[in-house]
């Protein structure tokens, strides 16, 4: 009888896992409307976090807010604000013109967790079929969190 119970329990668990929705939208085409909003794009550097937010507007502007007073930058309690633009090249591929770094680069994007996370693949300039690194950004539900924060300029 205990083998039968174990079999039923394992079958039930398998069915629940198989039928569960992960709400992962990876594989779907990403367009500018999917990117519009505020993203937590902070980066780990060793055991420290470089606090960064990135805003994408519906007009294709990309604005980076890098907190100067975090453990990585060790500056003032203000944000270094830089801007650029982003435009779609093909499905899930975008060109970022980063005024802040005086260059442009290609990225591949993948929406995850029903659009609440974004995986960014930074492509090799010389061979765009190769990925140099990737990051996961999470969508901020409160898009006004930076409205009253001071700029370092």
Short descriptors:
mainly beta; Lipocalin; eight-stranded antiparallel barrel
Characterise this structure.
This protein has a single domain (24-139), classed as Calycin beta-barrel core domain (Lipocalin), CATH 2.40.128.20. Helix content is 14%, strand content 43%. The protein is built from two helices and ten strands, in the order ααββββββββββ. The protein has helices at 2-19, 32-35; strands at residues 37-40, 43-45, 48-50, 52-56, 61-67, 79-90, 93-98, 103-112, 117-123, 131-139. The strands form two sheets. The protein has an eight-stranded antiparallel β-barrel. A two-stranded antiparallel sheet has the order 2-3. The longest helix has 18 residues, at 2-19. It is globular, with a radius of gyration of 20 Å. The N and C termini lie far apart (74 Å). Residues 1-26 have low confidence and may be disordered.
Shape: globular
Q: How does CATH name the architecture?
A: Beta Barrel
Spell out the CATH superfamily: Calycin beta-barrel core domain
Overall number of strands: 10
Helix content: 10-25%
| Sequence of secondary-structure elements | HHEEEEEEEEEE
- Summing up helix and strand content along with how strands pair, one would put the structural category as mainly beta
Give the termini distance in whole angstroms. 74 Å
Q: How many domains make up the 3D coordinates?
A: 1
Q: What fraction strand?
A: 35-45%
* Main sheet attributes: strand count, strand direction, barrel closure: 8 strands, antiparallel, barrel
Fold-level CATH name? Lipocalin
CATH class: Mainly Beta
* Tally of contiguous helical segments: 2
Mean pLDDT across residues: 79
| Radius of gyration over C-alpha positions, nearest whole angstrom | 20 Å
């Amino acid at each position: 009888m205990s083998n039968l119970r174990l079999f039923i329990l394992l079958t039930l668990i398998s069915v629940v896992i198989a039928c569960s929705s992960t709400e992962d939208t990876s594989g779907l085409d990403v367009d500018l409307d999917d990117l519009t909003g505020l993203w937590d794009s902070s980066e780990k550097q060793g055991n420290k976090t470089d606090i960064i937010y990135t805003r994408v507007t519906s007009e294709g502007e990309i604005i980076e807010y890098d907190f100067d007073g975090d453990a990585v930058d060790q500056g003032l309690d203000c944000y270094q604000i830089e801007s650029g633009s982003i435009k779609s090249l093909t499905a899930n591929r975008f060109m970022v013109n980063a005024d802040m770094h005086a260059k442009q680069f290609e990225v591949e994007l993948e929406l995850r967790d029903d659009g609440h996370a974004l995986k960014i693949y930074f492509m090799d300039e010389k061979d765009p079929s190769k990925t140099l690194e990737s990051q996961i950004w999470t969508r901020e539900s409160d898009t006004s969190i930076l409205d009253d924060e001071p700029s370092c300029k």
